[in-house]
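hey so i finally got around to running the thing on that chain from the lab meeting. sorry it took forever, my laptop kept dying and i had to restart like 3 times. anyway pasting the input first so we r on the same page abt which one it is
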Amino acid sequence: MEDLPYNGEYIVIKAKDNGVNVIGLTRGSDTRFHHTEKLDRGEVMIAQFTEKTSAIKVRGKATILTKYGTVETDD
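ok and heres what got predicted. didnt touch it at all, straight out
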């Protein structure tokens, strides 16, 4: 795999309730929303940090798995 200017890491988000929002935020001097997904209970999304995505925001009750460990969101 070629070396990329970003790390290309993946995270896994599993919704524990209906209506969990996953929001991708842009890189650069102006951080903006660039993508939003809504997950229902039991749905899983695999997200990647890319050249465009510097942060991922999760709203709602979900389990988030990363290479650093597992995070449970609060309500």
